[in-house]
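Justification of computing resources. Each target in the renewal requires a structure prediction run like the one illustrated here; the chain below, 238 residues long, is used simply to show the kind of job we budget for.
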Amino acid sequence: MSDQPPVHEEHHGGTLAGRLNWLRAAVLGANDGVVSTAGLVVGVAGATAQRGTLLTAGLAGLLAGSMSMAAGEYVSVSTQRDAEKAALATESRELRERPEEELAELARLLEGRGLSPEVARDAARQLTERDALRAHADVELGIDPDELTNPWHAAWASFLSFTVGALLPLLAIVLPPAGVRLPLTVGSVLAALVFTGWSSARLGAAPARPAVLRNVAGGALAMAVTYATGALLGAAGV
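Resulting structure tokens:
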């Protein structure tokens, strides 16, 4: 029996579940970009109407947020990749040192999936003869040796999704005339949050209404708090 705990296969691009998880991560990354940048620029708008100041603050928030997301995802996925490689190395060593025990373990795992003992033993033998490491990696560890998680893919996906989300409030606050900047930004952000909330719920096969309401309420609260803070600081001349 392997000492290594099962490795979660969330990021594997070779399966439908893996693709859906990547897509869900992209939607959530875009949502983070929308909320954090909207909170920043709306807060600054509460203190000043100068377009240059708003642009500088928005760009700084976009770059800081996207780089932070990318770095965090790179570190996280690199750790997961290291765990996957360690699990495969452990399994490979066990297959060399005690092949009969590993064969019996694979048969038990297949039996646990609903096969009869005889069929499970025969299937385990055939899988082992074909590719023992791949069989154990799939059935026991839940990973594909040819589809290990890629930290660079994860980092770029997070960077791009956050950037795309952050561009909406940034452009909405700096492009329109001063008189309509704030309502246009708030309206476009809330519409984007409806979409990202609905999308994340659909991808997770969850009810859309609660997800949308939570998303919109959270974004609205963030903008309200930052705007009030900016207005107070602006009135105080800080």
